Amino acid sequence: MVFKHVLKWKRGYSSQSAISRVKNVGIIAHIDAGKTTTTERMLYYSGKIKRIGNVDEGDTTTDFLPQEKQRGITIQSAAVSFNWHANNKINLIDTPGHADFTFEVIRSLKVLDGCITIFDAVAGVEAQTEKVWKQARNIPKICFINKMDRIGAGFSRTVKELMVKMSTRVLLLNVPVFRFDAAAKISVFEGVLDVLNQKVLKWSPDDPDKILVGDSDVGNEYRDELMKCRESLVETLGEFDEQLVEYFLDKAEGDYMQIPADLLHESIRKATINQFAVPVLCGSAFKNIGVQPILDAVTRYLPSPFEAHQPDTNIPVIFTQDKNNGIVVNGNKNLCLAFAFKVVSDPIRGLMTYVRVYSGKLNSGSTIHNSSTGETFKIGNLLIMHANVTEDVKQLEAGEIGVLYGASVEKKVKTGDTLISHAGKKTGLRSLNKQELALKINPIAVPPPVFSVAIEPRTLGNKKDMEQALETLVCEDPSLHVTLDEDSGQTLLSGMGELHLEIAQDRLLNDLNAKVNVGKVMVSYKETINEPTKFETASTESGYHFSVSVEPYVGRKQDAALEEWHDLNTDNNFLVIEKSSTPAEWPYQISKESMTNAIMSSCIVALNRGSKLSNFPLHSCVVRVKRDWRMPIDATSATNILVMSRKLIGKCLQNHPEAGFSVLEPIMAITISAQQQDLGGVVQDLSGARKAIIDSIEEEDEYMGGTNLSLEFEKLAECQYLPKDPTLKNANVQNAGSSSKIIKAHVPLKEMVSYMSKLRSLTQGRGSFHMEFHGMSKVTSDRLPTILDD
């Protein structure tokens, strides 16, 4: 029978939905798994759009940035809202799959109640999918095995990898149906076997609106597989749901086929929300096969806002669940609690802040208290976003995702802020107590940057515009960092990878119209002194006498009785003034503080100029003023002291032999996560090409939050019924999950530039690393020429 989905899969949009029928879900996966393609079909089948866009043609709804259209990838998360079955509202966030944009996924997960995880049936479980699965470990999920129409697609192989690598049980809601093409001598994917409703669904290859639905009796061709799938489904659910077991034994009399679909739906829902197992579906989004069952699964099995896990908080409060008000804080239904998870710059509306409302109602014109900053302000109108299309609304109810904008909001809210308001009164903050106004939820950990480039204005007149553009860029994407290198004078833009920075540069130049030049980052090398210089002395007829030397700082204990130590607060350098025989009462007209400050200033300038070896700034040095210093009693100006001491320090450094200096380079402490099978290549690259010192190699276990469950789920996977699949023998389930190793090492910063690309190559994209400054170390003689030549 051929029909258009006007009943079960009905198109339509309703402006209001009860909170129990709201679903805040996100799509997560590895790059090119088909997230945006699947999102586009969901929007089409819901009636939100009338034409299906194509990623390759750059006309999809959620990939609307110019950079996304040009590259065919998702760069920033996009929110869309639509209805399914007329009265179920789905707020969907399409997230990027590239590792460089992992922060987009991190902040989106903070406001989601459920996830759709998409797998490429040819590639199986890929690296970034494993990563985002771990990031979403507290969020219920459903899984969609996509691209079943491709040559080499393996449904059962992917399910087996899913079980072992993600340490999860599976509930097969549908399995693939193939038709053998005798002319081409290949099996053609054309539909799915609906395990719960006991039907075969076949989609028309010519019309995305047509579905070929078989009779309730699936016939002998699929009867055996249907029975095995049902048996496996009930057996898995029976481990969790005792009521289902009782029904199976008492009413169904041990017949798996006699358990009604509604009872199975309820059992699957409970198992999904409690994360006992994940429902698994399959299809081909590009061929318009199997998309409607995903939407059914979202509305049936994923939690509504009042059923979802409670937000993380900074202070102890009592959360209760209310079907009308969402999460209620300390029983106060008048408290509106919202979370800002994203800020974007719009050329017309300015900065727009995306928020998720957790409790109460957020009204336009309300007075808002930002508990993260302590600032209170009034908001204007509110929006609901449909990708880049806006819809004005008067209020956002609990569970909804919307946008604040306007001059009253700009720069007063940033990513990760908690917003509090009175749910009824527009100026009712005074009725809320101090604890409620101090509440903060869902802290976002910003991953550290691993790569940097230098940014400079084309002219001095462009400097202010450059700074404003960089401020906007970092406001939108906190995973970008802007720092000023005091030594080189460069402004450094740091991010998660080369593509991340490439996109940031494109936005700076084309979207924000910043007149800047982008160059390569320069590693900040230093010098140090190996042994003390000779004392250089200067005496004047007017009564000044100083003897100065420069020596290496070795962290020795200070002798407060004989000398005064002053931290120069730059490059681990110090000034030491030996105490003279001058009486305790200071006899000079110039203050002791002025004299000390003058000498400190001369030290900073002289040491920053470097030595005659390379002119790198000096690091870990002590400038010592000998005990016999003196000056005129009537001295009132520090100028003579400043000039004299600066010349003496310079003389000390110039008269010291070149062999008495060493070049220092920054050393980074790195922590790398890699699979066991990739360990050899990673370690060899570190110790060989990158001159690293390996400190330790450990099991990942608690360090990365992993658990050793792979062996248990390998056994479960062997017992799980899976349809015939010629690619099953190629399942990549050995040494999975907890076999990840943590490598700790110290590496010169110069060797870590662009390391992320190399690590991804060595680990097939599965490796990740964290890097932080450890200290400065002397450059070995074999590497010195290359550094000096740079």
Automatic annotation (TrEMBL):
Localization of this protein: Mitochondrion
Gene Ontology MF: a single term: GTPase activity
Tr-type G domain span: 20-306
Record keywords: GTP-binding, Mitochondrion, Nucleotide-binding, Protein biosynthesis
InterPro entries: EF-G-like_DII (IPR053905), EFG2 (IPR030851), EFG_II (IPR041095), EFG_III (IPR009022), EFG_III/V (IPR035647), EFG_V (IPR035649), EFG_V-like (IPR000640), G_TR_CS (IPR031157)
GO biological process: mitochondrial translation; ribosome disassembly
Classification via Pfam families: EF-G_D2, EFG_C, EFG_III, GTP_EFTU
Cellular component, GO, one term: mitochondrial matrix
Family: Belongs to the TRAFAC class translation factor GTPase superfamily. Classic translation factor GTPase family. EF-G/EF-2 subfamily.
NCBIfam families with a match to the protein in the record: small_GTP
HAMAP family linked to this entry: mEF_G_2
Described function: Mitochondrial GTPase that mediates the disassembly of ribosomes from messenger RNA at the termination of mitochondrial protein biosynthesis. Not involved in the GTP-dependent ribosomal translocation step during translation elongation.
Protein name, per record: Ribosome-releasing factor 2, mitochondrial
UniProt lineage: Eukaryota, Fungi, Dikarya, Ascomycota, Saccharomycotina
